[in-house]
């Protein structure tokens, strides 16, 4: 089962419907369809969605700034996923627990958990409560939480491409890449066997542009931030 971008109105399958506290939806105000994560808009302004939370173990690689990674995590949480962030920079991810708010007992919501970069027990994913694990471990991350069960998606945040990340990059179901310097674009071309015109396109993307890469997929898109997301994340940008 390949991971595909889905345009509204096309017969690309319907993502599962998850449930989430209405307070969380109000805090994030996501623009998504049933269980899908909107990753941006197309050339005509149409929302482009991926079914990243699904009944098979899934890997997503993000090459770029922290803004993109946090937006994907927020939108996964907004459609009902548990989100666990394994990171060496926990302060940069406090926006997730802030958005999740508190539970009925006044304690922080368990929907967003920040962990160290070491193996820990994860929540058990299910169709009603899928799990998104974010590994924010630099350009050569350890595969601490590989997706091994249905309804678990692991996102690898790479600030830049590194030759030692080739194995993880090749194993991804989908890759989202922001603008790359020439040397990294050349490495991307070698990893994914990209023709020269695609390699050049990676070097000319604007700050709010991303390329979605996957099996039989090459799709430039534009990042879009809702008003509530902008309050949490600030404006769309390439860097952290």
Write the layout of secondary structure elements.
Elements: E1 5-6, H1 22-28, E2 37-41, E3 47-50, E4 58-63, H2 66-78, E5 82-87, H3 95-100, E6 112-115, E7 131-136, E8 152-158, H4 166-171, E9 174-177, H5 182-192, H6 196-203, E10 209-214, E11 217-222, H7 227-233
Parallel strand pairs: 4-8, 4-9, 5-6, 5-7, 7-8
Antiparallel strand pairs: 1-3, 2-3, 9-10, 10-11
Helix pairs in contact: 5-6
Q: What does the model show?
A:
- This protein is α/β, with parallel strands linked by helices and 240 residues long.
- It has a single domain, classed as P-loop containing nucleotide triphosphate hydrolases (Rossmann fold), CATH 3.40.50.
- Helix content is 24%, strand content 23%.
- The strands form two sheets. An eight-stranded mixed beta sheet has the order 6-5-7-8-4-9-10-11. A three-stranded antiparallel beta sheet has the order 1-3-2.
- Helix 5 (182-192) packs antiparallel against helix 6 (196-203).
- The protein is globular.
- It starts with a strand and ends in a 7-residue tail after the last helix.
């Amino acid at each position: 089962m390949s991971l595909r971008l889905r345009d509204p109105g096309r017969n690309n399958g319907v993502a599962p419907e998850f449930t989430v506290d209405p307070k969380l939806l109000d805090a994030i105000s996501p623009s998504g369809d049933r269980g899908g994560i909107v990753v941006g808009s197309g050339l005509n302004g149409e929302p482009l969605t991926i079914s990243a939370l699904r009944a098979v173990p899934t890997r997503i690689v993000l090459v770029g700034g922290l803004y993109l990674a946090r937006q994907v995590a927020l939108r996964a949480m907004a459609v009902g996923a548990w989100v666990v962030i394994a990171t060496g920079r926990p302060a940069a991810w406090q926006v997730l627990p802030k958005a999740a708010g508190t539970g009925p007992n006044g304690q922080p919501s368990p929907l967003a958990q920040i962990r160290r970069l070491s193996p820990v027990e994860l929540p058990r994913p299910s169709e009603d409560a899928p799990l998104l694990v974010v590994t924010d471990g630099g350009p050569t991350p350890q595969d601490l939480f590989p997706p091994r069960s249905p309804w678990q998606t692991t996102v690898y945040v790479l600030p830049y491409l590194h030759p030692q990340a080739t194995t993880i990059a090749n194993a991804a179901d989908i890759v989202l890449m922001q603008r790359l310097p020439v040397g990294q674009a050349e490495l991307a071309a070698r990893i994914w066997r990209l023709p020269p015109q695609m390699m050049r396109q990676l070097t000319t993307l604007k700050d709010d542009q991303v390329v979605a890469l996957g099996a039989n997929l090459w799709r430039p898109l534009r990042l879009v931030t809702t008003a509530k997301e902008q309050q949490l994340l600030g404006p769309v940008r390439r860097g952290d």
